[in-house]
Amino acid sequence: MSARFLDVVAPGLMTSVQDLGRLGAQALGMPVAGATDAIALRLANAVVGNPENTGALEIGYLGPTLVAAADGVRVVLGGKAKLTLQPADGSEARPAKPWRSLLLKRGDKLTIGAVDEGGVAYLAVAGGFAIPAFMSSLSTYMRSGLGGFEGRALKAGDSLPLNTIAAEGDERELADEIDYGSGPIRVVLGPQEDRFTQKGIETFLSATYSITKEADRMGIRLEGETVEHTRGADIASEGVVTGSIQVPGNGKPIILMADRQTTGGYTKIATVISADLARVGRMKPGDTLSFTAVEVAAAEAARREQEKMVRRLIEGIRTAPPDVTLDLNALYTQNLISGAVDAPSGHWR
Amino acid sequence: MSAYPQIRSFGDTGFSVEFGEGIDRGINAMVMALHAALTDTRPAGLVETIPSFRALLVQYDPLATSRADLESHVRGLLDGLKPQQHAGRLWRLPVCYAEEFAPDLAEVAERCKVTPQKVIEIHTGGRYFVYMLGFMPGLAYMGGLDAVLHLPRRSSPRTKVPQGSVAIAESMTTIYPWESPGGWHLLGRTPLKLFDAAREEPILLGAGDEVTYVAVSADDYAAMLHQVEDGSFDYAALRVKA
């Protein structure tokens, strides 16, 4: 079979290949990277029948415009954004639905608009990208130019190679909405809670913080009341996790995200629980949040509950009902031909 | 009774085991011992471990184990754990201290009240221990710098330090695997790639390794750089057999 590609006409604001991250080499200083909203990535892959850890395009804020350079390229947008399909046959462009798979023909152009309800979305392709894994992951770590597609965000003119699979069967869709949770972001205090004053901890757990413009895949700097240390903000460098909340000398918390370094030398007041990481990963500059403390066992229970929700959503993925937009178009065309439509105005009778 | 080892929470995906205060080979030998014991026993749900100066971060999958179960396994390993000795490799790494590669050599010499030649002698005379990696892929924090050369980091960090720069700060020496910002004092440059995605093992040094530096001329540097760039350089030859 001939090579299959997805061509990038416009790259969007920050589009990169991500899977669930590069684990196993953090002891060598290799960051994990990977999806900032792992739930959406897993579900998007599930809709097109991929293993959950398959690399997909992570779209930040504004989506790319892509053209299928082969027939039978099945894609789905995991997330909320305006989707426009311009068919190659020159017929009228039409909207398409997120969370519903779509079979592209050679030359079909898909335009993904601004991401709403969260700053991130995923475009998964059935069969995945034919990109060699680096250290057993397809995740792009842009700071060092490693992994993914040439180690960088996509650019106009890129041709993304696709694995060849037979795109058969009906289109499928996610039946229900993802529940990311609401209320304060849950954290477990520590590891260095003893390096903050009682007042500092109280401030951290009661203040409302806003997300600054310095928020990217590496970390989210928060603006709000300063958190008071007992004796400085420096510690001997040590390992960190995604969700670690560092408080440097200025007292403003920073949440470490997917592209975080493996180690850090600032005091960490708390850690975002894993069940709330996707929610934080979807936040945008200007969004506000507050924190509430839970125990480790409660955090683990919350994660198990969330996993049940994800499994339920995966099991609920169903054959998509006919695309109403598409059918109306087909009907309209047929009616024009059969003359059953009021020809001068083109309106239904 | 000693406050150590001490266990600290990193949410529901990790906990650290701290073995003491400060940067100390004995404390780090316990970190490396637990790192090795967990690598050997691979308990269910363990994701990976990150050793650092005085603590081991244990990362786990809360859907495959629990803090309680994994902590209990770790406490079992801590019981009777012996410090890890000489488990790493010993490397002899070439460094060119020529002026073009050593923008801070003169200043370091002046501030430490020795000649530049003496700085080079001291730096090549040491045997350095890789306590940990971090900051960027493949960057090794190597301890054991002679006290004569201890200086705080530069007050204004450089925005761009060239790849391969060999540097010192406080009691440490390092080699920048990538061009990056950096606040350490630059004494020379190695032609080696501490990180090379094309190599079977992209990252050269590991925690627990030991390193000595060998001064090479600018000509030798250029010849080695050529081999490094065309992929013919034999990295295994840098290892000193025990």
Q: What does this protein look like?
A:
The complex is a heterodimer of chains A (349) and B (242). By secondary structure, chain A is α+β, with helices and mostly antiparallel strands. Chain A contains five helices and 23 strands. In chain A, a hairpin with a 7-residue loop joins strand 6 (81-86) and strand 7 (94-96). Chain A is elongated. Chain B has two domains: 6-78, Gyrase A, domain 2, CATH 3.30.1360.40; 90-238, Cyclophilin, CATH 2.40.100.10. Helices cover 25% and strands 27% of the residues of chain B. In chain B, the strands form three sheets. Chain B has a seven-stranded mixed β-sheet. Chain B has a four-stranded antiparallel β-sheet with strand order 1-2-4-3, with helices on one face. Chain B has a two-stranded antiparallel sheet with strand order 8-11. At the A-B interface, strand 13, strand 16, strand 20 and helix 4 of A face strand 1, strand 2, strand 3 and strand 4 of B.
Task: Name the strands of the widest sheet of chain B in spatial order.
Answer: 5-13-6-7-10-9-12
- How many domains comprise the coordinates of chain B? 2
| Class based on secondary structure composition and strand pairing of chain B | alpha+beta
For the terminal residues of chain A, how far apart are their CA atoms? 48 Å
Distance between the first and last residues' Cα of chain B? 38 Å
What portion of the residues of chain B fall into strands of 2 or more residues? Answer: 25-35%
